[in-house]
Structures are given as C-alpha cells and as structure tokens.
Amino acid sequence: MARNKYPEETVNLILDVSAKLFIEKGYDETSIQDIIDHLGGLSKGAIYHHFKSKESILVAIFDRIGEVTEYQMSAIREDKSLTGLEKLKKMFASSLMDSDSLEMFAAAPNLIQNPRLLAMQMVSMMEDVVPNYIEPVICQGIKDGSIQTDYPKELGEMLILMSNIWMNPLVYSMTREEIMSKIAFFKHFTEAIGVPVMDKELEQRLERFCELVKKPGE
Known about the structure:
The chain is built from ten helices and no strands. By secondary structure, the chain is mainly α.
C-alpha cells in the first residue's frame, strides 16, 4: 500500500467526520465503524495509525477547538482599548459564541463517567486558562480600578470552576430548573463581588448549551 503523502489532511478528515457524527449521533452512540463508513474508503488501520481510540479522536477535536479559543483569548488579553473587567466579560462571552463548538461540547460524554477527560479539562483550566488568560486580566482590572480584589489567582480559579464545572451539565446531571437556578445564582454572585461577567446574551447561550446537552431519548 502506498504511503500517505498527506497525513495532516487525513487527520483533519478524520476529525471533521468524527465531529460531525458526534454532534449528529452523540459521542457514546458513534462507533469507530461509523466513522470509517463516512471516510470515503479509508481503512480502520488508517484511523488507528493516527488515533489509538475514539476517546483520543475526541481529545484531538477538543484540542483543535482549544487552539481557536486560545487565539481569541490572547487577542482579548492584548486589547489595549479594554479595561480588565471588560476583557474578563468578553472572554466569558467568546467561549460560548461559536455554535459549532457549543454543539461539539454538548455531544461529549458525561465527564463524571469519564474521569480522564474531566481530569484533562481540570488541568487545562488550572494550568493554562487561569494563569495565562484569566488571572492577567484580573490583575489589569485591579490596576485600572475596574476590579476590586486582593486575590486575583483565587478569583480566577473560582470563576472558572463555577462556570466550567459547577454549572456544567456534562459534569452534574441537572433539570432545567436546577440549571436556570445556577445561572441566576452565578449572575447574582458575580455582581455581588464586583465582577459582573454575565449578561443576557451569555445567559441565553448557557441555556442553549444546556438544552443541547440533552441526549437522544431524554
């Protein structure tokens, strides 16, 4: 068999097809064979040459989304026209602006039942997102007076944990009423501590994400 001269194109094809199937069918309901059937003739060996498992495909899809998010967050962080608080609000909003990404995350498996994926998300948040993006803009906010806190690192960690873990229906199974109550509390709490990152549009996008998480048959 001839050597694949374009491995990057093959990888991108596998990720594109897999992402589409995960969104349409759900991660748990999509098999490796389903992916093979939609790859236009690529063999199972071609998939396993690049990815060890379906989970590794999912991780690669999230990594690709993460690269786009990192670019957006960097641009916001470096925007000299915004205050620290404005940057923080824009970062939270940008994380929920891409409908395709929302659908992809909503198609992911329950994280409590997949501790490796949950651990990877926690590490990314605590070792990358907070120190490189959230904490620096909080520190700027302290300097420009738009944020008042003596604990920029702790504030950043708390905001990320609340928004990405505590309010995440992929971590905690919640009814619509419970989700709406958490969103309302998060809005009330962040306003009370002087970091009102939640606006109406962000509320609506969070609600949309939570609706997307509902699995077939629910």
